[in-house]
Amino acid sequence: MNYQHLTQQFNRNHLHLFRAVAEAGSFSRAAEHLLISQPAVSQQVAELERHVGLALLDRLPRGVQLTPAGAELLAYAQRIAALETAAFKAMQDASTLKQGRLAVGASTTIGVYLLPKLLAQFRSRYPNVTPYVQIDNTTVIQQSLLDGSLHLALTEGFAEHELLHARPFYNDELVPIVPMEHPLARRESITLAELAKQPLILRERGSGTRAVVERAAAKRNIALMPLLEISQTQAIKNLVAAGIGCAIVSRLTLSDEPPRRLALLKFSDANLERPLHLLTVKNRTPGKPAEAFIKMLH
Q1: Fold for domain 172-274?
Q2: Do 3-93 and 100-169+276-297 share a fold?
Q3: Pick from 225, 242, 250, 238: nearest CA to 170
Q4: From CA 127, how far away is CA 10, in angstroms rounded?
C-alpha cells in the first residue's frame, strides 16, 4: 500500500463525517446533527472508504454498524478529535495567559537583586504561567537569547549584536567600595584613577559591570590591572570586607548590605550610571507571557 499517497488523500473532513455517523448510528441522524444533507454525508463517507480500500460501515435497514476496520478507525478519529480540542484549548489558554511558559534570562546582578521582585510581581498577576530563569553574565545571556532558549533577557551590558533590540527599563549606578579600615574609607569621594592604583577585585570579562567599568577607564586612558576576577558579586563584597582589595559594584547589590561592613564612596570624576536593558530578538515574536512581562516592566 502506498502510505504516502493515502496520507495525501486522507481528508480530515471525511474523518469528521465518518466519526459523526459512527457515533450517531445512522447517516440521517449524523446529517441532522451536522445540519447538512444525508446524501452529502453518505457520499463523503463512501469516498473515505474508497481511499482506504476498506468497508468501514455496514449499511443496515435501520442505521449502520461498524466493521472491524471501522471500529479501529473510529478509535483513531476520536483521539484526533480530542487532540484538536486540546490543542485549541491550549492556544486559547496561552492567549489569555491561563497557562504558558516564560523563559527569561538575566545577567548576574539583575538576576540576584532585581529579578526576584519582578518575578513575584509577574506571578501574582499570572499564577498559571510557569517561569524558567537563566542567570549568567551578559555575554552568555545574550547568546542564549539569540539561540532561542530565552524569550527575553534583562542585562547590564551593552547590546551590540545587530539582531538584538534593547530598551532601558531601569537606571543603575556603579559605585566604589573599600574595606572599612582602608585609608580611603575616610574620604567621601575618589577618582577612578586613584581606585585603579589599589588592589582591584573586578567582575569577570563578559559581565555587564566589567564592560561599563572598562569603557569608563578607556575614556580616561586608565589601565585596569585587577588583583582578582570573580563572577559572583557577593564574593567580591566579602573579599572587600575582609580587606583583600577594593571594587566597583552596582548600587543594587548594596541594598541588603549590613551597616559598617563596607565603606561606600563616590567617584568625583566619573558618573557610572547605566541603564539596565530589556533585550528581545528583532523580528521574533516573544509570545504572550513575554509580552505581558514586558508590559509589566513599562
Answers
A1: D-Maltodextrin-Binding Protein; domain 2 (3.40.190)
A2: no
A3: 250
A4: 41
Alpha helices in the chain (DSSP H): 3-9, 12-24, 27-34, 38-52, 68-95, 108-113, 115-125, 138-147, 192-196, 208-219, 233-241, 288-297
Q: What is the pLDDT along the chain (298 residues), one digit of tens a residue?
A: 455 555 555 678 899 999 999 999 999 999 999 999 999 999 999 999 998 999 999 999 889 999 999 999 999 999 998 898 888 887 877 777 888 899 999 999 999 999 999 999 999 999 999 999 999 999 999 999 999 999 999 998 788 899 999 999 999 999 999 999 999 999 999 999 999 999 999 999 988 899 999 999 999 999 999 999 999 999 999 999 999 999 999 999 998 888 889 999 999 998 899 999 999 999 998 889 999 999 999 8
- In CATH terms, the fold of domain 3-93 is Arc Repressor Mutant, subunit A (1.10.10)
Q: Which amino acid is at 108?
A: T
Q: Which residue has the cell 451536522?
A: 34
Pairwise CA distance, residues 105 & 119, whole Å: 12
